[in-house]
Write a structure and sequence with these properties.
The chain contains 7 helices and no strands. α4 packs parallel to α7 and α6 crosses α7. It has 200 residues and is mostly helical. Among the domains are: 33 residues; 97 residues.
Length: 200
């Protein structure tokens, strides 16, 4: 009448299963307290809401801008804009910065001519137009000269890079037209400095 129910075998079976699970373990070592805290911090840093994601993007953009401005000063190739990256571009910048060129005098002269043409009369305006035309001719001649000299130097310094001279003339002319203290990325060589044969 007071017989035991059939729950005992199931209890025994569950006890055996727990013992087997304990003997087998969970398959991975228990993380230390430091590792657990680091994992919790990493989870907390992940932006969850849209506002947090926008703030994270703004922070990333600001950080990238800071690195790029610092690279513009130091010449660090990793954070420069794509148009300025690579050893060939660095050589072109150094080649232009180490040489005194007529092109760098044209921009200040152009400003002076525009002021003279605006302040002066009709004769001054005619003279300004003629001078500006001559400046365009000078830019063309200097661009042709730079094309030949740069291609020769790039072939000598970068024989294994067939794309080293791609866009080199335009890049050099645009840098040479800038006023020397305002050039970006900043100058890394002095005027008249001897350039190395190999750029890495």
């Amino acid at each position: 009448m007071f017989r035991r129910t059939k729950s005992e075998p199931s209890t025994v079976e569950s006890t055996d299963a727990d013992a087997t699970a304990i003997s087998q373990g969970k398959g991975r070592p228990t993380p230390s307290r430091r590792e657990a805290e680091a994992a919790n911090k990493a989870k907390a840093k992940v932006p969850r809401t849209r506002k947090e994601q926008a703030a994270a993007k703004r922070l990333a953009r600001a950080d990238a801008g800071t690195r790029m401005r610092e690279a513009m000063r130091s010449g660090d190739d990793r954070y420069l804009p794509a148009r300025d990256q690579g050893p060939a571009r660095r050589f072109i910048r150094d080649y232009v910065d180490s040489s005194l060129m007529i092109l760098e005098l044209l921009l200040p002269l152009m400003v002076v001519l525009l002021v003279v043409g605006w302040v002066g009369g009709r004769n001054a305006a005619a003279f300004t137009n003629l001078a500006l035309l001559l400046m365009i001719v000078v830019i063309f001649i200097e661009a042709v000269r730079l094309r030949f000299t740069l291609r020769r130097e790039l072939r000598r310094r970068f024989p294994d890079d067939p794309k080293a001279s791609s866009g080199a003339t335009a890049y050099a002319v645009m840098r040479a037209l800038q006023v020397r203290p305002w050039r970006k990325p900043d100058r890394q060589v002095r005027l008249g400095q001897q350039l190395p044969d190999r750029y890495r």
